[in-house]
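Running low. Invent one:
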Amino acid sequence: MKMNEQILSIMETNGRISLEELAERVGEPQEKVAAAIDEMEKDNVICGYHTLINWDKTEEEKVIALIEVKVTPQREMGFDTIAQRIYQYPEVRACYLMSGGFDFTVIIEAKTMRAVAMFVAEKLAPIDSVISTATHFILKKYKDHGTVLCDEPRDERMMVNP
């Protein structure tokens, strides 16, 4: 595996790793690893650094919805232009072009289910190219970005003594 791919693989699972430890794990000098990271940031390979938070363990109420969107691309306005109109909204956490029965998956975050409904009705559906939407609410996250969020299941079997 090339050095950059090693760096990315390690950083993807631990964005807080120190440069010293990262260089040690990759087997390269810190200066070389730092230069590689800087270059990957400039090239938009590394697009940001995020903290994964299990909001279910806080007092904060959030509603997360996954919206399937079917569109008809207009002449000289491909999927990229439609995606740009969708992802500009601050509620949108992710926007993906899909294969299959619909064109985009849009993940949004709002305070209430009503706010999600208003987003769809007032912002998403009125876009000229949008044909239809189907909204799904995320009820519980078990694993996100490769990290298990729920407590490990307990063994609830009764102990039997011989």
Remarks:
- The chain has a mean pLDDT of 90.
